[in-house]
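Appendix B. Chain record.
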Amino acid sequence: MPSAQSKADTTGKNTWHHKGPVVFSAVFDWPPRPMAAFLALTKRWVTVTRNLLFLIMAVCVYNYLTPELSGMKTLAWQWVVSVFLRNIVLLTIVAGGLHIYLFVLRGQGKKLKFDSRENMESNSKFKFQNQVRDNIFWSLVSGATVWSCYEVLYFWGAANGLLPVLSFSDHPVAFFAWLAVLPILLSSHFYLTHRLLHWPPLFKSVHRLHHRNVHIGPWSGMSMHPVEHIIYISSVLIHFVIPSHPVIVLLHLYTRCMAPAFSHAGFEKILVKDKTLTEAADFHHQLHHKYFECNYGNVDAPWDRWFGSLHDGSDEGTQMVKVRRRNMYRNQKPDIQ
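Structure tokens predicted for this chain:
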């Protein structure tokens, strides 16, 4: 595979060049590499990653900030509103905290920043004439609302015995199996629904709002049209059918709704005093925001490689995407800004 340390993502002299091509999870390597696959499935839960952060948050929220199931049998406004407010606070802490550190305080300057531009945009294509305010509006008003509706519906259904719920003490193996399977499930759902959202009628009416963000930042991750939020978060509905623990459901929602703040951070890693704290922006998805018609999934499952939509970060990948876009828009003007 050609090197990705190229002009593929160049936007200025201070732009960070990702070293090496896009690499997918070792789970799908052929010939198989059992140890590498095992580490790919487990490492994210035992090292300092956003995944571990969300797992800890899910455990704490379920045990200390969630009412007993018996108290959620009716849709009482007290607990419903508390779920909504809690999710707004969580998203604000994660996305807002990253934005303040990276773009306001400039905690690591431009180190490991994919796009050399200093600030988010301010122009008429964004609500309030400001990219950050526009992103915050759609993330909180639409994103947190749809997220909370799914969460409320799950807990109401579980409380009334309408949905299957597993206890950790009775089914510990199932709990850990969910941890292994969840990234692949999320990746697969994301690829399939993302391809759907790039269907021209849906792109123009729905997904275009998210793609107004070319120079991305933490708040742009969940800046979507309400219809896209419904589709994007709908993967959580699998827990309405297949038994799981409520912590897994919360983890699923947190991964869907707060992980985009990291993957859209614009910086490949979060540094503290020049030392890596955790991985941040996804180079694979960074290329999607630059070139649009490529990299619809993520690196947890190689759907883009299997279906020919992969930009691996190389010059060859850039040429492939240009040809692909010309073919896609041969008889129509692309509407991607």
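Further analysis of this model is presented in Appendix C.
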